[in-house]
Amino acid sequence: MSRLPQALVVLAVLALALTGCAPSNAADTVEPTATGLEPQTLSVYAAASLTGAFDEMAALLERENPAVDVQVSYDGSSTLATQIAAGAPADVFASADQKNMQPLADDALVGPATLFAGNTLRIAVAPGNPLRIENLADLARAGVITVLCAAQVPCGAASAALLSNAGVTLSPASEEQNVTAVVTKIASGEADAGLVYATDVAANPDRIDGVTPAGASEVVGHYPIAVVAGSAHAEAAQAFVDLVLSPAGQAVLAAHGFLAP
């Protein structure tokens, strides 16, 4: 073989090698997430009592979809509903009652709402129950500092119904805008007792103790969830709702003490 053909063969081999080493299109190297969700931040507005369960739910969705960042804002359902009605950029709303969801549905500000959990009330007291508070009437005892949720908050409405059913009238030292604030006041010693959800007692075993009052099973809070209308992340929002309603999501809720819807 002459030198010229040999040189051509060498050049051809080099060309093939360079072609094999050439960078591919960046899009071809990006692996889709588990459900095909693109990078985005999902904003979930949820009742304060859902904190532990929804923190886990957010982590689950992020694990299945690494490109998605789930940001959950917790507060009283009435506060969150007011913010959504005013145009807050929420993608999902999970309320602790249907009362605060319904006005948003009536104004077409949310899609179809689905019940996903239930909850009942407990009397929350300091660890060890030093004042020996055993029933609802004890909350009205002289010298007992009792705090409740405000009437417009789901736990406040449920508390009013429970006290009314028991024929107990009391003047709380304060009315809080969410159930977390009631827990905080009792845990810090600012109050002696209050009415919170069973799930709040379960979530704070070292901070408060719980007493089950008579009639608690007759006052059940039902939690609805919906995608907010006009969400810029509607697919991811629906994926979060689907997760909450799925067997995996329901198992998380049950582990945190929530009742089936």
From TrEMBL:
Binding-site list for molybdate: 49, 77, 179, 197
GO molecular function terms attached to this record: metal ion binding; molybdate ion binding
Protein name according to UniProt: Molybdate ABC transporter substrate-binding protein
Domain of life: Bacteria
Signal peptide: 1-26
One Gene Ontology term from the biological process aspect of the record: molybdate ion transport
Pfam families associated with the record: SBP_bac_11
Family listed: Belongs to the bacterial solute-binding protein ModA family.
Cited PANTHER family: MOLYBDATE-BINDING PERIPLASMIC PROTEIN (PTHR30632), SULFATE-BINDING PROTEIN (PTHR30632:SF0)
InterPro entries: ModA, ModA/WtpA
Protein keywords: Metal-binding, Molybdenum, Signal
